[in-house]
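quick q for whoever's on today - can somebody do inverse folding on this one?? i tried earlier but teh output was garbage lol. tokens:
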């Protein structure tokens, strides 16, 4: 599969073979589907899924129009198939308490399933790093981990860097040279060597969309989560990585922050704030360009605005990381070795396709498969789910690249080598 392949979805996610569907008893009952994935050759397993009713591109406009209060015209109705999305999952109206109860259960079940797919009991997990764009509560990860049976002594790090959150967590867990977003006075990558670590992204974006009137956001985003287990230095080894910020001055993608942040900016300093929230809990929070008070939770520029926001800086970030990777390969005496595949954030198919073309002009041609047609844009979860869908085809000692980018604007790119069975 090359970087411009667009694989067709086999149908609604819940109908996929291997997906276990249960109903979470919140509100009228919310369906949750989870698929476990394991590759014993590389010693990595995980779980991904979605919750809520499934809407295809025919039924989705009715839901959007109900939220907007008016009918979509031809200009407002997006060509979602062209953007790589065939289905999204959304929940019914719920109270704030029900939203929180639902997302605790979703998080707990994904964490338990990911631990089981990795061959671990929840109590054996040493650390959990999860990206979430707008959490339902400041301590959502801690509550979900406790519900899953993960011990109080396990490290919990919640990362709020919009769609970059999942890859940012992986970078934090693996990259010993990471500066921005690192924990105070701690080198997490060195601490976690040889430990059992769950990394992922869990996004209840349907809740967020209930507070927006942006036509694009309502059509693009949906619920989804993906978590996998790694043992740094053994089943996944850090090779090269890059992290950067390019603040969205123009507000091309505005997101209401539901997590604490000083909302202050200082010239030459990172917009990411790291806070210790408990004895073993930390929050990594990125400043967002927020909508005006009278606007909704998400306000997006047109499709070309998204291209402008993500592609140029995103290509530069990947170029730096690949350059560092190639320098390392030369030092190791394998100068011709290349990365096998890129697992990128699925903002939309056209953005990823354009990134692939521009990278080719920079001499970087790496397969970037499109893997999430049946989820929509699920923000921090998308690269995690893409990895899990690609996982069965990966081989020991293979080199792969994670490419995260999100509103704010934040970029994390991480090249890793897959190990053998743990």
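ok took a stab at it. sequence:
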């Amino acid at each position: 599969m090359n970087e411009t392949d667009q694989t067709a979805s086999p149908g609604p996610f819940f109908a996929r073979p291997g997906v276990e569907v249960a109903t979470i008893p919140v509100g009228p009952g919310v369906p949750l589907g989870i698929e476990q994935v394991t590759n014993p050759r590389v010693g990595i397993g995980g779980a991904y899924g979605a919750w809520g009713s499934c809407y295809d591109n025919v039924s989705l406009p009715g839901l959007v129009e109900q939220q907007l209060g008016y009918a979509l015209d031809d200009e407002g109705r997006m060509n979602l198939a062209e953007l790589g999305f065939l289905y999204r999952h959304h929940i019914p109206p719920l109270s704030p308490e029900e939203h929180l109860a639902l997302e605790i259960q979703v998080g707990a079940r994904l964490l338990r399933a990911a631990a089981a797919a990795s061959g671990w009991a929840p109590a054996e997990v040493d650390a959990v790093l999860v990206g979430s764009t707008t959490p339902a509560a400041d301590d959502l990860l801690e509550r979900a981990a406790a519900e899953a049976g993960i011990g109080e002594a396990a490290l919990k790090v919640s990362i709020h860097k919009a769609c970059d959150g999942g890859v940012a967590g992986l970078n934090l867990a693996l990259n010993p040279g990471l500066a921005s977003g690192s924990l105070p006075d701690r080198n997490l990558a060195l601490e976690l060597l040889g430990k059992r670590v769950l990394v992922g992204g869990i996004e209840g974006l349907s809740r967020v969309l209930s507070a927006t009137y942006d036509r694009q956001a309502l059509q693009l985003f949906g619920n989804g989560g993906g978590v996998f287990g790694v043992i740094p230095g053994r089943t996944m080894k850090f090779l090269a990585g890059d992290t950067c910020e390019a603040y969205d001055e123009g507000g091309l993608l505005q997101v209401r922050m539901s997590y604490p942040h000083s909302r202050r900016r200082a010239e030459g300093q990172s917009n990411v704030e790291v806070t210790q929230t408990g004895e073993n809990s930390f929050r990594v929070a990125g400043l967002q360009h927020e909508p005006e008070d009278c606007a909704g939770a998400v306000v997006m520029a047109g499709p070309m605005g998204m291209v402008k926001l993500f592609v140029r800086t995103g290509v530069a970030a990947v170029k730096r990381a690949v350059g560092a990777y190639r320098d390392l390969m030369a030092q190791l005496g394998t100068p011709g070795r290349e990365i096998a595949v890129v697992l990128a954030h699925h903002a939309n198919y056209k953005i990823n396709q354009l990134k692939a073309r521009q990278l080719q002009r920079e001499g970087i041609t790496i397969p970037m498969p499109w893997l999430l047609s049946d989820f929509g844009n699920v923000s921090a979860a998308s690269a995690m789910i893409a990895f899990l869908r690609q996982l069965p085809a990966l081989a020991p000692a293979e080199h792969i690249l994670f490419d995260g980018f999100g509103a704010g604007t934040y970029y994390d790119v991480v090249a890793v080598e897959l190990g053998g069975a743990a």
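fwiw The first helix runs from residue 60 to 68. also The two ends are 29 Å apart (CA to CA). so keep that in mind when u check it
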